[in-house]
Amino acid sequence: MIDDVYYNLVTKIENFFDGIMIVDKDCVIRYNRLFINSDINLNEKNSIGKTPVDIWPNLTEETSTCFRAVKYGETTTNQVQTLLHASGREISAVDNTFPIVENGEIIGAISTTKFIDALTFRNNIDLSNLTITHANDLYMPHDIIGTSKEIELLKFKIHKVAQTNTSILIYGETGTGKELVAQSIHSSSSRKNHLFISQNCAAIPNTLLESIFFGTTKGSYTGAESKAGIFELANGGTIFLDEINSMDLNMQAKLLKAIEEKKITRIGGSAPKKIDVRIIAAINEHPQSCINENRIRKDLFYRLSGVQIEVPPLRERKGDIPYLTAHFIHHYNSEMKKNIEGVSPEVSAFLQAYDWPGNVRELKNSIEGAFNFASSNLIEKADFPRFYPLEGTSAISSGAEKADWFGFSSLNEGLEAFEKAFISKRGKQATSLANLAEDLKISRQTLNYKLNKYHLKLGTLGKF
Which CATH number is associated with domain 141-310? Predict the structure, then answer.
């Protein structure tokens, strides 16, 4: 089905990108093609029937944009990725991935790639006339749902700071929508016709960040090619640096120098290049705790914190929950071809009482889950499988709404706790970082990402 329905789509847009990959609902590659000359062997013959994780061994299901698209319906826009090919070759690319939806069901995903080796980039691709239901346009302030005073203040701040070029620090809990705010600032600014590049600093080993930021010069090290970094690519636009507090302090110093001097020098190069880029950085905790724990340099913090924007957690703006619920119901009605009119009074009371530790993202996922079980025109309590342990008890008493059977507020939280404990325990017996990666059966790049994600220090994992 994928091959027939979307082949014309591929042939229409192949001239705008360096490569296109299409996967089915199981994330098995059904089409994969490069449109540029390359020594990377990625043709259909050797990739059909495999998954992106098979092709790029440093990816996992959670870091693969294709897997996230088919599992969660997630759209990825202008994300810079460093990919490790099975041949050992490292490749930096700008990725755009979209779920493919038919009759309300995700039947696959399409991923377009532009390699950073190629210096010509498009800002976006207009798929509005095609069958994909997820628009790739960047968010605007009106996409921020809510009428609470907290949201009105947030939109006011976005409008004001969009008129300037000052660097910005956004902080807020996981799931509050920090990238939505960053995109809204860019979309409302004079930079809106230039590139918006999002980079999660925790997703890339610190040893690679410098080349991703500033680019490389051919011959600067073994295998190095002339590549533009994201500062060059986003010239005139905006760079969003998420989880900046996970970045190595030495790399933070180099970032600060680039921001202050508005110049960058490629690795191995000697000629500095002027850059005009607005930096929007984000952290998922209070800035002061990052400073106190020496996870963000004070001088970088002072440079970025001239404008600080806090994205409020959902529990502090519960008046917005009915609006968000209605918005997500409308969204999933369209996507799943259903006609849900709202939620029952019992569910409405529960949604108001629950603390939502996963914030708007958790609410959205909960509504989506309930849609799969709803059998009437109202979402009932029974349509929320995760709340079954509360049967016979009040969902709003004794803090019960904050935890499920195992004491975690979500499956993700439980999985992350297990993963962190598992790595820590295995690390105590490992003799080296390479040995630990081998024992865990993951790549060193993936291990580095997880060490940064969970703030695990090598010294706590044994003698390395």
Answer: 3.40.50.300
Q: What is the DSSP letter of 138?
A: P
Residue 347: name the closest of 321, 365, 327 by CA.
321
What's the half-sphere exposure (Cβ side, CA atoms, 13 Å) at 254? 18
pLDDT in tens, 345-374: 888 888 888 888 889 998 998 898 889 888
Query: Which spans in 81-148 are helix H?
Result: none
Nearest to residue 50, comparing CAs of 67, 29, 76? 29
**Cβ pair 6, 110 in contact under 8 A:** yes
Side-chain-side CA neighbours of residue 323 (13 Å): 12
Token duo for residue 47: 């990739």
Phi-psi region of 134 (alpha: psi -120 to 50; beta: other; left: phi over 0): beta
Q: Which residue has the higher pLDDT, 195 or 40?
A: 195
Q: How far apart are CA 135 and CA 112, in angstroms?
A: 14
Three-state DSSP at 140 gives coil
User: Could you tell me which of 169, 177, 183 has the C-alpha nearest to residue 151?
Assistant: 177
pTM to 2 decimal places: 0.59
Instruction: Please give the CATH number for the structural domain made up of 318-402.
Output: 1.10.8.60
Q: Give the Cα-Cα-Cα angle 324, 321, 307 (nearest 5 degrees).
A: 80
8 A C-beta contact, residue 402 and residue 409: yes
b/e 338-353 (16+ beta carbons within 10 angstroms → b): eebeebeeebbebbee
Neighbours of 170 (CB within 10 A): 26
Q: Which CATH number fits domain 2-115: 3.40.50.1820, 3.40.50.300, 3.30.390.60, 3.30.450.20?
A: 3.30.450.20
Q: Do domains 141-310 and 318-402 have the same CATH topology?
A: no
**How deeply is 391 buried, as exposed, middle or buried, from its count of CB atoms within 10 A (0-12, 13-18, 19+)?**
exposed
Model confidence over 382-396: pLDDT tens digits?
887 654 333 433 433
How many angstroms separate the CA atoms of 145 and 198, rounded?
22
